[in-house]
C-alpha cells in the first residue's frame, strides 16, 4: 500500500484502502454524522439517505464518484490497469523502441517519469509559457520572449543570453525533429500553458514537412484524491496507460493549430475569440484553454484580468501571505490552472506597481517572497467592485499574446457575457 511518502499517492490508488474508506463512510452515515450524510447524498443524488436501507455498495459508489469515476467497477478496472502497467515496467524492452521517437513536452516535468516507465525516446522540453508576455509574429519573436523572461524574473535568475540560447536551441530541435525522428509525440494537458505550446508545435508542422508519425496525448482528467492539474502529478505507470491513448495528428488538427497560433500572435484578438466560441472539435481541449486565455484581457466590467480579479477576491476575505494566496488561487479558485509560481509572482508584482496601490505588502524575508504578508486596500476593494477602473491606476504595460495592453491607449476588453472582445 502506498504510504504518505509516496509522491504519487494521490493518483496511485489502492483498492483495499478505498474499500476501507467506503466502510468508514457507511459507518459514519449510520452513526448520524451530518458531513458523511452530505457526502453520500451528493454522490448518490439522495436528499436524505436512509441509514437503515443504505448498503456498502452505496458508500462504494460515493467513494468512486469522489475519486472521479462513474462507478465502483470503473475504479476497480482502473486500479487493475495501473497495477498491470506497473508490473510491466522493466519486464520487456522500452515501450517506444519500435521506431526513433521524440517526446515533446512544454517543460521537463514528466521526463523522469517517462524514463522510469521504460520509454527510451529522446525528450524535448519546449518550456516557454505563452499565456504570459509578448507572443508576436515578428522575426525576432524568440528574442522578445527571452527578453521578457529575463526582465520579469519568470525564468528565475537566468540571464538574457542564456535564455536566448536555450529558446533558440529548442526551436532548432523542433525544426529538425521531422528529419531526426520517425515519430514525434506531443504530451499535453488541457490548460492554456500546454495548449498554446501545442499550437506552436502544430503551426510549425503545418508549414513544414511533419514526421512520418505525428501523435498527440492530451489529457484533461485523471482519477485521484487530489485535483488533477497536470501530467507532472502522475506516476510512471500512468505514462504507460496514456501511451495507449495517443491519437494521430492529422491535417485538420494541423490546420486548426496553425490558425490558432496565427490568431494568438495577432494584435487583434477577434479571431482568437471566434476560435474559442467554436470549441475546436478537432482539438477539444483548445477551445476552453483559449477562452481562459482571453479572460486575461481587461474585463469589460472593471479592467481586471480574471487572475487579477481572483487574487483580489482572496485578499478581500482577509489578509494573507503570498504563499497562502498562491495556494488558494491555484488549488481552489482558478478554473483552469495554468500559472507556474514564477509567473504568479510576476503578475502579483505587476499589480503592486499600480497607483494608488490595490494591496499593502509587508516583506518578511527578501529572499523568500512567498512569506510576505498581503492586505487589500480600499482602492483594491473599489476596483474589485467595479467602482474604480483598474487601468485608471496606470499599472505597467503588459502583453497577452500579440495584444499589447497599455493603460494610456484604448484597449481590447473581454466581455464574458457576450463571449467576445470589445475595444474601448
Describe the structure.
This protein is an alpha/beta fold and 424 residues long. Helices cover 45% and strands 12% of the residues. The strands form 4 sheets. It has a 5-stranded mixed β-sheet, with helices on one face. A 3-stranded mixed β-sheet has the order 3-10-11. The mean pLDDT is 95.
Largest sheet: 5 strands, mixed
Structure class: alpha/beta
* Rough outline: globular
The count of β-strands is: 13
Number of helical segments with 4 or more residues: 16
Q: Can you write the helix and strand succession as a string?
A: HHHHEHEEHHEHEHEHHHHEHHEEHEEEE
Low-confidence stretches: none
Radius of gyration: 24 Å
Please outline the helices and strands:
Elements: H1 15-30, H2 34-44, H3 56-66, H4 72-88, E1 101-105, H5 111-116, E2 122-125, E3 133-134, H6 141-152, H7 160-180, E4 183-189, H8 192-207, E5 213-219, H9 236-243, E6 247-248, H10 251-264, H11 270-278, H12 286-294, H13 306-317, E7 320-321, H14 322-333, H15 341-351, E8 359-362, E9 373-376, H16 378-384, E10 398-401, E11 403-405, E12 412-415, E13 420-423
Parallel strand pairs: 1-2, 1-4, 3-10, 4-5
Antiparallel strand pairs: 5-6, 7-9, 8-9, 10-11, 12-13
Helix pairs in contact: 1-2, 1-3, 2-3, 4-9, 6-7, 8-10, 8-12, 11-12, 13-14
Amino acid at each position: 500500500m502506498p504510504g504518505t511518502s509516496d509522491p504519487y499517492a494521490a493518483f496511485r490508488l489502492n483498492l483495499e484502502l478505498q474499500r476501507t474508506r467506503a466502510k468508514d463512510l457507511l459507518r459514519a452515515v449510520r452513526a448520524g454524522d451530518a458531513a458523511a450524510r452530505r457526502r453520500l447524498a451528493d454522490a448518490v443524488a439522495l436528499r436524505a439517505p436512509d441509514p437503515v436501507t443504505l448498503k456498502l455498495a452505496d458508500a462504494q459508489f460515493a467513494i468512486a464518484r469522489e475519486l472521479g469515476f462513474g462507478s465502483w467497477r470503473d475504479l476497480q478496472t482502473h486500479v487493475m490497469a495501473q497495477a498491470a502497467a506497473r508490473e510491466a515496467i522493466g519486464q520487456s524492452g522500452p515501450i517506444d523502441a519500435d521506431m526513433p521517437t521524440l517526446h515533446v513536452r512544454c517543460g521537463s516535468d514528466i521526463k523522469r517519469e517517462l524514463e522510469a516507465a521504460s520509454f527510451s525516446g529522446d525528450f524535448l522540453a519546449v518550456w516557454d509559457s505563452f499565456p504570459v508576455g509578448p507572443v508576436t509574429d515578428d522575426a525576432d519573436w524568440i528574442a522578445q520572449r527571452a527578453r521578457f523572461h529575463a526582465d520579469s524574473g519568470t525564468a528565475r535568475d537566468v540571464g538574457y543570453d542564456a535564455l536566448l540560447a536555450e529558446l533558440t536551441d529548442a526551436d532548432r530541435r523542433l525544426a529538425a525533429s521531422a528529419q531526426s525522428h520517425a515519430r514525434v509525440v506531443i504530451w499535453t494537458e488541457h490548460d492554456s500553458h500546454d495548449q498554446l505550446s501545442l499550437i506552436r508545435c502544430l503551426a510549425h508542422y503545418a508549414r513544414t514537412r511533419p514526421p512520418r508519425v505525428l501523435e498527440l496525448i492530451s489529457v484533461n482528467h485523471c482519477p485521484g484524491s487530489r485535483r488533477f492539474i497536470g501530467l507532472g502529478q502522475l506516476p510512471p505507470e500512468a505514462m504507460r496507460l496514456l501511451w495507449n491513448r495517443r491519437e494521430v495528428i492529422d491535417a485538420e488538427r494541423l490546420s486548426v493549430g496553425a490558425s490558432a497560433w496565427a490568431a494568438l500572435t495577432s494584435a487583434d484578438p477577434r479571431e482568437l475569440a471566434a476560435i474559442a466560441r467554436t470549441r475546436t472539435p478537432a482539438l477539444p481541449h483548445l477551445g476552453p484553454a483559449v477562452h481562459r486565455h482571453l479572460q486575461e484581457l481587461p474585463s469589460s466590467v472593471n479592467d481586471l484580468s480574471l487572475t487579477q480579479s481572483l487574487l483580489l477576491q482572496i485578499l478581500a476575505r482577509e489578509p494573507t501571505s503570498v504563499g497562502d494566496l498562491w495556494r488558494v488561487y491555484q488549488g481552489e479558485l482558478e478554473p483552469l490552472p495554468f500559472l507556474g509560481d514564477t509567473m504568479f509572482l510576476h503578475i502579483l508584482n505587476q499589480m503592486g506597481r499600480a497607483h494608488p496601490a490595490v494591496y499593502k505588502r509587508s516583506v518578511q524575508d527578501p529572499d523568500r517572497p512567498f512569506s510576505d504578508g498581503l492586505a487589500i486596500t480600499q482602492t483594491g476593494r473599489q476596483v474589485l467592485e467595479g467602482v474604480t477602473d483598474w487601468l485608471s491606476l496606470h499599472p505597467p504595460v503588459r502583453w497577452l499574446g500579440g495584444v499589447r495592453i497599455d493603460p494610456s491607449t484604448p484597449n481590447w476588453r473581454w466581455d464574458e457575457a457576450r463571449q467576445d472582445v470589445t475595444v474601448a
